[in-house]
Amino acid sequence: AQSVTQPDIHITVSEGASLELRCNYSYGATPYLFWYVQSPGQGLQLLLKYFSGDTLVQGIKGFEAEFKRSQSSFNLRKPSVHWSDAAEYFCAVPDFGNEKLTFGTGTRLTIIP
Amino acid sequence: DADVTQTPRNRITKTGKRIMLECSQTKGHDRMYWYRQDPGLGLRLIYYSFDVKDINKGEISDGYSVSRQAQAKFSLSLESAIPNQTALYFCATSPGTRTYEQYFGPGTRLTVT
Lengths: 113, 113
Prior knowledge:
The complex is a heterodimer.
Chain A: E1 3-5, E2 10-14, E3 19-21, E4 24-26, E5 33-38, E6 44-50, E7 56-58, E8 64-68, E9 73-78, E10 87-95, E11 100-103, E12 107-112
Parallel strand pairs in A: 2-12
Antiparallel strand pairs in A: 1-4, 3-9, 5-6, 5-10, 7-8, 8-9, 10-11, 10-12
Chain B: E1 4-7, E2 10-13, E3 19-25, E4 31-38, E5 42-51, E6 54-57, E7 64-70, E8 73-78, E9 87-94, E10 103-104, E11 108-112
């Protein structure tokens, strides 16, 4: 079964600095891939998705992600973080057979002034 | 108004009690899902439903049951709550049609004492 791994449990970044959150997938064919964000006390919101085509995907809130088949990765990036970006971030991959999403364990992002 | 709503938002209950968590959506989606979130484990699928007559177990369905009362309503029940069911519970919807995107409610924080 396909799966995703988020190797970083917690990352701390200074406000205004760049950000990269890692996601590695395990899937034989070209996967569909998602990034979701969970702000404190909120549900999950879709940041961006990759289905095929251009490997650099733009999302909401100034985020982007790059699909790299050679590294089995789909890392999330932002050039300059804002205090409001403090949240938990989840990478996810769907099961094509039953349309479920399998989530990574999440990366918690802390922003320091 | 929110597209996916969950009630209650917070609930404290005692071991052995029956409890129902409710989810309603105005998105017109056929597919609905129940997840639980535990720290360090990400989101795990409990049950999912593709329409009113199609309900399926997820990876952690033991101790839970569901009811799809209408296209817009999907309830999760804990027949006899136990402390290790203390978690954050999310409802999600999806339009299907192989987009695989899911839209989440704000969550219900359940504590079983």
